[in-house]
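To close the chapter, one final illustration. This time we ask the reader to focus less on the individual chains and more on the assembly as a whole: which components sit near each other, and how the overall shape emerges from the parts.
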Amino acid sequence: MPGESDIAFMTQALRLAENGRYTAHPNPVVGCVIVSDGKVVGEGWHQSTGAAHAEINALNSAGDKARGATVFVTLEPCSHHGKTPPCCEALIDAGIAEVVIGMQDPNPDVDGKGLKVLKAAGIPVRTGVLDEQVRLQLAGFISRVTAGRPFVTLKMACSIDGRIAMASGESQWITGPEARADVQRLRARSGAILSGIGTVLADDPSFNVRDPDIDTLGRQPLRAVLDAQLRMPLSAEMLGLPGQTVVYCIDDNKQQALTDEGAEIVKVGGEAGQVNAQAVLEDLARREINNVLVEAGPVLAGHLLTNNLVDELVIYQAPHIMGSETMGMFETPAWTALSHRRLLEITDTRPVGPDTRITARFAG
Amino acid sequence: MPGESDIAFMTQALRLAENGRYTAHPNPVVGCVIVSDGKVVGEGWHQSTGAAHAEINALNSAGDKARGATVFVTLEPCSHHGKTPPCCEALIDAGIAEVVIGMQDPNPDVDGKGLKVLKAAGIPVRTGVLDEQVRLQLAGFISRVTAGRPFVTLKMACSIDGRIAMASGESQWITGPEARADVQRLRARSGAILSGIGTVLADDPSFNVRDPDIDTLGRQPLRAVLDAQLRMPLSAEMLGLPGQTVVYCIDDNKQQALTDEGAEIVKVGGEAGQVNAQAVLEDLARREINNVLVEAGPVLAGHLLTNNLVDELVIYQAPHIMGSETMGMFETPAWTALSHRRLLEITDTRPVGPDTRITARFAG
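The assembled structure is written out below.
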């Protein structure tokens, strides 16, 4: 059992890690705290790929005080020469007396190697301190390296009676400006935004991070559009914006014009005229996307749910009743009995301006 | 501006009033605190019609200490001889030095008469202390005596995507036992439960208070069923239960058999085969019903919403996704544009077991 101070220091490391939330992609966010005589003498976090790891930043901030100190780091330190030198070596060289790790590296090729190097150097290592919290913090990275697909967050905006638009399609501004600002943060956390051609044709969305208060170091999430027959108009707003647009199709006959507009066209399998979403997610994982945010209509949302490809739901519920002459949230033609329904576990409910944001994962 | 201690004592009176929530019908709930030298020396609340008023109970509990004391009472004391002697006289006789009132009696025939009697006896009276809170507490009573119809609470149980049943009608147990227990409390607060014949035919509901922990002094809410063509089966569960069943119809040809089963049949106007809901509510007000709880399907719920006959919504939202092959919450065929939607103000959101209870009123 970790002690109270272990929990306090690892909590601080978890919090530090969050500083890299908008910038660390495709790397995991990592935080590190160095403690000497019960006092924090160094702090570090990982900002972006190619930049120093959290441990190195913490060692630099601690200076000589690192000698004989205890290191708390959310993720197992690396032992390999990657874009930066291995952290284990640096910890050993700095004379660290003990290392406390949140969770071991989930990457099956790495898992445990850092521990071995530290132990071989005679440094005691404890693991599993707040590992559940680290697991939640790194859900996207873990999903990519262990399941070969990103962590998928499905965002929907709806009325309190679960409607997203009038039957006519009329839908603008169901939720308030605070909810839309919150979506900017969801986008900034995500490596890619996934949508369907129906949404592109109806709303011509930008899917970009444009809140000046959010610093992504210039990065924009990749825009992934499921577009079986390549109906994407050449005038689509997103094609002219900074960042990458990838269009997934079944039939790529018309790809040249879109390629000329800067989009990348990827031909994948499909069924009944629908692009294979699993294949798209696997392709995104190969592109080192940890977190995908789905901003789509009821057809793609229902398709992803039906195929169990959603890990988390974020619902912005506006305090409106829209009634029956409207579109529902999820098209799920195969769910004909109550036993087909999906059970959720609500992890967070909070007001966002006049709206309510509900975050949920799937139960059982 | 009321002072801090005014607010504290009136808050205590408001809380005392709640003791009568399940039993005071058709009377308003009222609470009273008697304060001498800054200390509470007497407390009272009104339990049920015919029993002593809150002020009398408080005077009895204070005894001699009432002389020279200040009375805090949520509602203007009565000055007329009704089922009990007038409270104003008792307050004067007890030598009360000052009376602080939450709100004046909303009944236009009474409003201000108690104040006049007290002032004429030389007792200073202050009004409007926490009157907004009293107004919320007495919403049903106020609606009945000023608008001639009860306060209408529409209760719905749905999934997180706003669905109440499968398209096939399959719907049992969408919400959990805690939500169903909470509905027992909603029923106990209500003078009547309003439903439609569709719900009776589909679910054969009891609409009764059966939680042994809720003491209504034996009272059951009146069961009001909108049943234009008198399709209510003679075997309907509710006909055999304690309490009154009133069936509102347009065509009362078949009334005799139902009357034999103990139901009261009331013929009211209607349009397009639907019973005039406004006329039903007015009839319930004449029966001294302050609060109506609607437990109905999407047709009646939508009809009431469309006709602005709902004052409050209570939604039990289960953490399930039910999808598109389902029934929505509200049938509102006339709401074809986004501008027809109803805007709500959420007044409370809380977990009730695994479900979420959302309470809302209509905005603007």
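Chain A touches chain B through 47 residues (CB under 8 Å). The first helix of chain A runs from residue 4 to 17. With these observations in hand, you are ready for the problems at the end of the chapter.
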